[in-house]
Request: fold
Amino acid sequence: MGKWVKLGLPIIAVAILSITVVSTVEAQGKYSIPSWVKGIAGFWAEDKISDQEFGEGLTFLIDNQVIKVPLIQELIDENTQLKQENAELKAKLDLGIDKYSLYPEDSEYLDNGCPVGYPYIWSDGYCYDQPESTSYECPTGYPYEWSDGLCYNEPEFYDNGCPNGYPYLWSDGLCYTIPEIIYDEPVETTPSCDPSYPDVCIAPYPPDLDCDEIGYSNFRVVGYDSHGFDTDYDGIGCEVGSPQSTAEQPATESCDPSYPDVCIPVYPPDLDCGEIPYSNFRVVGDDPHRFDGDKDGIGCES
Reply:
């Protein structure tokens, strides 16, 4: 018979036999060779089929996995795995590639150095296809972007120019937490003064005050000197220089600039609202006496 008959006989015979003996082949030892394979080899050994025909027959059987060669299959599986790992590695490397490598190599560049298609250069030095100002939007519920770059649910400044938290612009040009219309002018109340010092107003004892805790010097002392200002018992308290009465030299006083509408001695000493004759007065600056406890710009509110 011709070449195709010689090649077809062993292939057909193997195909038929493989249906019934595949389980037998798998159950045989690692080095066992089925008898029908030996028969094909016998045909080849007796020159009943050529080397070409015998090789093509084996190739057909291997390609169709009628005959499984473990080493070849392992190499195929390993090659497949390596291809998959290589693809994963390439994907990871692509993420780390400089952004400019993503631009087309043959693109033309604009005057700002950006390629066509990426005309906007951002503050990070890279080029993008949209302006930086529209690259980020505050989330729903926090629509206001402040100067610190964060988003808030209220504007940073009000329409009158006052910052958030101080919405009321007063006639003095400063911003406060309460409307100016409800602000009460400072009221000078009748102080509680110790009658031992008739020319000045010094809080009665207690507390015990020293000369450096009050804003006066060289004042008259009469009666019981509860604070002990007249240490030499000459009738003059907190003497500075030659003893003189306040009738000849007025008592000196320094007003703290944090309270511009009233005259309150500078710190120290630390004074409380009950130790001064004022209430509802403006507080600006540092507030060393801490008269404005709620930080609304008003001291000793009543």
User: Anything to note?
Assistant: The two ends are 125 Å apart (CA to CA). The CA atoms of residues 21 and 34 lie 9 Å apart. Confidence is low (pLDDT under 50) at residues 1-29, 242-252. The chain has four helices and twelve strands.
